[in-house]
Amino acid sequence: MIHISKRVDFEIFRGKAAWLNRYVGWAVRLIAVLLSLIVSGILIYSITKMNPVRVYATMVKGAFGSTRKIWAWLRDLVLLLLIAVGLAPAFKMRFWNIGAEGQVLAGGIATAACMIYLGSANIPTPLFLILMAAASMLAGAVWGVIPAIFKAKWNTNETLFTLMMNYIAIQLTSFFIPRWEHPKGSNTVGIINAGTQAGWFPKIAGSQYLLNVIIVAVITVAMYFYLCRSKHGYEIAVVGQSENTARYAAMNVKKVIVRTMTLSGAICGLGGFLAVAGADHTISTTTAGGRGFIAIIVAWLAKFNTLTMILISALLVFLQKGAVAIASEFSLSNDVSDIITGIILFFILGSEFFINYKIGFSKSSGKEA
Amino acid sequence: MENEVKAPAGAVCAESGEERIPAVRMEGISKRFGHKTANENVSLEIYHGEILSLLGENGSGKTTLMNMLSGIYFPDAGSVYVDGKLVHIRSPKDAFDLHIGMIHQHFKLVDLLTAAENVILGMKGKRLLDLKSVRRRITEICERYGFEVDPDKKVYDMSVSEKQTLEIIKVLYRGADILILDEPTAVLTPQETRRLFGVMRNMKQDGKSIVIITHKLHEVMEISDRVAVLRKGEYIGSLLTKDTDPQQLTDMMVGHRVSLNIERPEPENLRKCLEVEHLTVIDSEGVTKLNDVSFTANGGEILGIAGVAGSGQKELLEVIAGLQNAQNGSSVIYTDMEGRTSSLLGLTPMEIKKLGVALAFVPEDRLGMGLVGDLDITDNMLIRTYMEGHGMFVDFKKPRHLAEEIVRELQVVTPGIDTPIRKLSGGNVQKVLVGREISGHPSLLMSAYAVRGLDINTSFMIYRLMNEQKKRGAAVIFVGEDLDVLLELCDRIMVLCAGQVSGIVDGRTATKEQVGLMMTSLGAGAAGAEEKEGAK
Amino acid sequence: MNQTLAQIISLITTAVSFGTVIMYGSLGEILTEKSGQLNLGVPGIMYLGGIGGLIGAFLYETHTAAPVPGVGLIIALACTVAASVLGGLIYAFLTISLRANQNVTGLTLTIFGSGVANFFGGSLSKLAGGVGQISVASTSSAFRATQHLTDKLGWFDSIFLSYGFMVYLALIIAVVMSIFVNRTRRGLNLRAVGENPATSDAAGINVTLYKYLATCVGAAVSGLGGLYYVMDYIKGTWANDGNIEAVGWLAVALVIFATWKPLRSIWGAYLFGALYWLYNFIPGLSRSSQELFKMLPYIVTILVLITVSLRRKKEDQPPSSLGLSYFREDR
After folding, report:
1. How many domains in chain C?
2. How many Å apart are CA C214 and CA C210, to the nearest integer?
3. DSSP class of residue C319?
4. Which of A304, A326, A339 to mutate to test the interface with C (most CBs of C within 10 A)?
5. H/E element holding A357?
6. pLDDT tens across B231-258, in order?
7. Model ipTM?
8. Domain B48-71+99-254 sits in which CATH superfamily?
9. Model confidence over B102-118: pLDDT tens digits?
10. Is the pLDDT of residue B421 over 50?
11. What range defines the domain where residue C94 resides?
């Protein structure tokens, strides 16, 4: 009685969907988001007995209530976005890079090391920033390319390999924390160069996080064109669809895998640079803070379109900020934001089904075809 | 040529006299997939203790029809009766319960499990596995019908023929009385085919009904008692095998007499293009796929390659295209228009391209190798040319023009050039692929099963395109399965048999029987064939 | 000499109790992955299981004047199973019925589970009108009751009998699961579903049902790991320190290490436990180098992953359809 068939009008290289599909897709996603907001509202109501309208008002106020809050929202948005953008080429190649968390941390360690060891060297800020960016990208690239080499050479399962690399990075961070700890005995690194602010992102036009936004905006747009217009992007799309076709098209599949993961790891590593030099000015095992995982979901839901990722990141970070605001108003645990993130992602993930598949009803005695 | 032949009178069926209740009766069966009709109002009977051939061209709906008996699909309209009772077969399990079992072309076996485990998969029974009694029953079945299979062998260690045997045992183990075999001989050597036919006869004697889906006429004549013919999803008629002959069946199958009348221009200005010598290929499993193959392909002629499926055709083309490695001692020498020679062996596709070899390749697996289903027509044009042009960005202008040109010239039916080609029908997909390959003005054009699954008009378009390339002076290598086509299209035909060259014959003088014989037994019939090797 | 012996015994008992948490997680995931479902939500499910049991016991103890440990134990077990099966159901519905990507859905489940658990772990006392940290001493004592028979057994007692019942339950589950997977008809069907769902479907196996059941039962087993951690390992309280998530990923690693075989995950779990705590038993390590030692389980897992891909032994590979959704019309 119910027929389920696949819609296949999504073009993989340039990422176009047939116009009808595109609008249906956005409508379905919008409904999913609304539903998830209702469910979250009910949940918050049942815990706090707060009037649902006030729930949403508090959330909006919590996220956008002041200029400082908006900037904090932007800062977190662009960090999540950058990691998702870094993951996009890997996922487009159907390489399951679950290791963003580790790649971000690796980049963060490299940045923190630069700040700590070179902070007193009086390097001019622009040069210092470039140096740190390069170091973090290198560290992230190494973290990303190791699983890629094994995947290319021996087809070692990359999902599980990159997952393990996360925890090695976390332990590596734990290894450095006692060495860098400040003050002694606190088992935290503390604010690095709190006095000199060496290696910190400079304020631009009075805004502390404008540089973060600029860097990520440039990379996001560049990645969009890299994936949808460049020769490399084409190779990534073809390798992701069929290795046989890629070889037929005279592509060097192994090279494409290694190159793409180097890029993916490097951008995620740059995320560590942004987190450490551009936001936290410290490093801990929670510097990535699960963003590496959430970014995977963002990249996947955006179907590798980096511009769509902006919307999804903005929504998720807004919800997190809003949830935290509610939690603090009722002095509850901040973890409520993870619950809400989970709920909204479940809904969007579920809604993909109604976008990717056509569901029809037949009146005959036929069964599911 | 378009002379439609109606099913002969009296073909309607069954042995005269006694009223027999058919084991299976399908009545008015229709099945559609989207807008494509697979079966239209088909009625068919299968009797106890007979071997029925279900004959039809590729795409005539034979497999779909039988899938509705085995519970894979459910008909949109029509009814099925088993032993006179109306039934609804909604799943393979329902089919098994009605003692119907199908052996699919693509084996449905779990590689990691043993033969015995595969046999009892999904069956009801005691909670704990009792493999001992399963082994015993398998051995019984084997002895009864003359199979050979080791119940403890893992499927991944099995040959194709062993796997097929296992599939048949699986069906018999479940108590099937009606067995459907979907093109069982496509993957078998002649010896294995003979053994299979022996087993089928034993089963028939045991009272089983057997349906064999095939498009090979000699098999129909050899094994079956009765033939039912489908054409374009419709039931044409059925005949007792003893009352018919291949000519009549062909007429029923294709709807018009097979004088194909494919154009075959005289070869002009032959020049040596590709010289393959002592080519030996051993795959990663250690199986010899090609054994000491030598031949020459000339510019200005079409070299056909005949052979049963899996005789090394795929490997041959892939080695030349740089997609597979060959053993030491092999040589593949390419000669360009100016007479310069270069060895292609061991080069990657990129290196071949950089040598300036204009090589075009229409592979068998169209959407798995030649094209990407989720890319649109324009982006599929890029597969050969995306690296062209300076800078890091792709130039979309040329491929877009090419895509438009191909859609126009080859009458590709598509909503537009930015539709993912997975949405196109098989014939249109092939037009896109062939169109792209010949757009590079190849000096060597290789094609594998270029007309498989295509309708007659598209097939003729492909023949015409091949001939155009031949007239241009390209060397065309045409791997085919239909001997009639090979004999009418090709100037010379190389026959492969189990990875070896059985002989090379002149397409104008060779007969179908001769080529058929060479395909199945090495060197047979080649004595009479005119060796044209080195004629130039 | 005696001190060394005491050290070794201590390492073994540490390894066994910590390893048991990992073992539960990995046993559940092995069952789930056998059906072709790669559930990266294991940490989330262990969180849900842990907090479910804790909430159950907490509500029981706060609403009863004189809580009976045994009753608290049963309530905690039931709540754990319910909470983790619920987590498994969300994952199953999204990935099996709605064909959402398994990796992404699993990760979301981990985020969701850790959110729910840490939220209630941190706020439960307050929500219930109390103050301070949750504690379920009575129920926890039932979980921690050891199996001492006499005092005369010395080291034997320490190594084999000094644990709560869930350590032994894990062993029983491993053995039963191994027999189920390898020796029963349903186990055979399950393996077939994970290897080749289309073939299993054609053989009349209800692929969807098997996947649902394997995911939900697997989730229940994984969830028990969270319960054991909360009730026994950290003695009936809650710690918002991300340890359950770390153990959850170790459990995923152990699945690979055990090459999808339940029995191998027994000694694998104890080995992981020993490797993880090894730094405590090596004298003279700085705080930094201790952290390097904690990498060992992950490094060992990567080495196993590489070895498996190099050896290409078919029996050691992941189930062939792992991570792919099955859609009947695709065949």
Report:
1. 1
2. 6
3. P
4. A339
5. strand A357-361
6. 888 899 899 999 988 778 877 876 654 5
7. 0.91
8. P-loop containing nucleotide triphosphate hydrolases (3.40.50.300)
9. 998 888 899 999 999 99
10. yes
11. 2-145+157-330
